[in-house]
Amino acid sequence: MLSLDKVFNAQTVLKSIIRETKLVRAYGIAPECELYLKPENLQITGSFKVRGSAYKIAMLSDEEKERGVVACSAGNHAQGVALAATKNGIHSLICLPDTAPISKVEATKGYGAEVCLVAGCYDDAYQKALELRDSQGYTFVHPFDDENVIAGQGTIALEILNDLDNIDAIVVPIGGGGLISGIAYTVKQIRPSIKVYGVQVNGAPSMYNSIKNNQIECLPSVQTIADGIAVKQPGENTFKLISEYVDDIVLVSDDEVSSAILALIEKQKMIAEGAGATAVAAVLAKKLPVEGKRVVCLVSGGNIDVTSLSRVIDRGLLNSGRSSSLLIELIDKPGQLKDIARIIADCGGNVTGVHYEKGNTESVNGCFLRMEMETRDFEHVRQITESLRSEGFKIV
User: Quick one: pLDDT at residue 247?
Assistant: First the structure.
């Protein structure tokens, strides 16, 4: 059974394997509260997952180690298992969904694991891993629904409580629930007054739905940029622990996650993957009652593919009004572009793209001009739009 002694034992066992990540005070992200970040994106392997997997592997018997281990993952658990197994001289086979970012697949191989790509999502990789366990005799290392894995993740709570006094709330991403189970259980044993909030994404609300309906539910599909928490069905152990120890769970959108990733880059110079930014997204989007509170958000991982990061940044810029586009209907005659560019420049906007389009306009001599701009925020976009309208331009 999970116990506080087991969490403290995990902390001792993991000292030679993991990196203790110190809390970072975050300025300029959520001024309504005193915000701190727990940067597990700076953890060895780039994610908190190494804690649980390394402790689980350390607790295996000699016979289990001899047989080798198999695991399933969206990427981060894979790297944790691969690293821990290699350090212990154990063969590891990791089943990853074929949608996992290339960077995570290559990193898993780099830590010494054999990789098996499985068509579908995390849950499909999970079924394949169970098949290989049964047919090949491997020891299965579950990514979240295991007491040793949960205890390993609980060491994060010990570090947070050691770093900071008078904490009001801790905000944690939820996929299968192992991370928040370990943190919530540990926190409530030591400081029961601290609120523990979970965050899931709209495209994968498996634990949210299960807790609200008081029974474990399986989603037909999941779709989100937060691939690390795209889990169709939560675990039995994690469901029970979250039901007992977590104060509330909220949902955020992919757009809110994108804005949080952008805020972490700009304000903290910190790279987070989609799953890693969900806690910050919930605070940014004011989904939680944390105004005036001392709050810790867990940045659970930073293993985001560079191509995905570029798309997420673009999305975040659009969602915050930092990047915008205007479609203007014109009479096709000389001088129009010069006047539009002058108005935008006078308002402090920066033109980054100009596209001339012919289309179905009211005038036979009409055309469309699409202007892409760098702007400060949505109010700045409104000022530019009103200035263009005041000089007779028709904004479509």
Answer: 98
Model pTM score: 0.87
- Which is catalytic among the residues 49, 128, 195, 232? 49
Joined together, the tokens standing for residue 223 give 């779709």
CA 108/CA 115 separation, integer angstroms: 7
pLDDT tens per residue, range 5-39: 999 999 999 998 999 999 999 998 999 999 999 99
Of 47, 73, 210, 300, the catalytic one is 300
The partner residues of 395 in beta bridges, in order of sequence, read 328
Rounded to whole angstroms, the Cα distance separating 78 from 104 reads 8
49 is catalytic: yes
Tens of pLDDT, residues 136-146: 999 999 989 99
**Average pLDDT for 129-133:** 92
204 near 222, Cβ under 8 Å? Answer: yes
Please name the residue that has the structure tokens 């403290």. Answer: 8
Whether the Cβ atoms of residue 246 and residue 180 lie closer than 8 Å to each other: yes
Instruction: Look at residues 306, 323, 318, 179 and name the one whose alpha carbon lies nearest to residue 259.
Output: 318
Q: For residue 359, count other CB atoms closer than 10 A to its CB.
A: 10
47 is catalytic: no
Cβ partners under 8 Å of residue 380, min gap 6? 321, 347, 348, 349
